[in-house]
Amino acid sequence: MNSINKFWMDFCQKHHVNPGELEGAYAFGGNSQDADVLSDLINRGIKTATTSVYDPDEDVPTVGQYAIVLNGENKPVCVIRNKTVEIMPFKNVSAEHAYLEGEGDRSYDYWRKIHEKFFAWECRENLNTIFSENTEVVCETFEKVD
Q1: Distance CA 26, CA 134 (A)
Q2: Residue 30 pLDDT > 90, yes or no?
Q3: Which of helix, strand or coil describes residue 107?
Q4: How far, CA to CA in Å, does 43 sit from each of 26, 28, 39, 103?
Q5: pLDDT of res. 1
Q6: Taking every annotated instance into account, which residue ranges of this chain make up the domain ASCH (predicted)?
Q7: pLDDT, the chain, mean
Q8: 38, 51, 108, 117: which could join 28 in a potential S-S bond, CB 3.0 to 4.6 Å?
Q9: Vertex 141, ends 135 and 144: CA angle to 5°?
Q10: Nearest to 30 by CA among 140, 129, 123, 141
């Protein structure tokens, strides 16, 4: 059993959770340095939201599902549980959501600048599309469970 599976099974036992409620295990951000910073913000309860480009070929996260947050070395840091999931055009993401993402100075301007750059790269490199204000994104809020 690898460390991620063991982490999840220990969590399920401790919290009386069905192991099938795991959405997945993933690192936030585009590289290991981002993953370390963002997993730390989540673990400390500062980051309670995330936004990603909507990919119609992938499953949309579900309210109530659990996920394991990984650091830059793909080691489990904590478990989160989705509270809300919404799909909307990038231009409609609120300042409140940007603040909940917990990054930088937590301002909407900071959030927008960082995410426009990252989403433009992601659309070009991974989705073979061009990012715009109307690109649909998935906005999630979550709580750290353990």
Answers
A1: 26
A2: no
A3: coil
A4: 14, 12, 6, 13
A5: 61
A6: 26-146
A7: 95
A8: 38
A9: 145
A10: 123
Helix H or strand E segment including 52: strand 49-53
What pLDDT was estimated at residue 81?
A: 97
pLDDT digits (tens, 9 = 90+) for 39-57: 999 999 999 999 999 999 9
pTM: 0.92
Distances (CA, A) of 13 to 6, 8, 59, 85: 11, 9, 27, 27
CATH classification at residue 36: 3.10.400.10
Strands 49-53 and 136-144, sheet pairing: antiparallel
Range of the domain at 133: 3-144
pLDDT at site 146:
81
Strand pairing report for 22-27 and 66-70: parallel
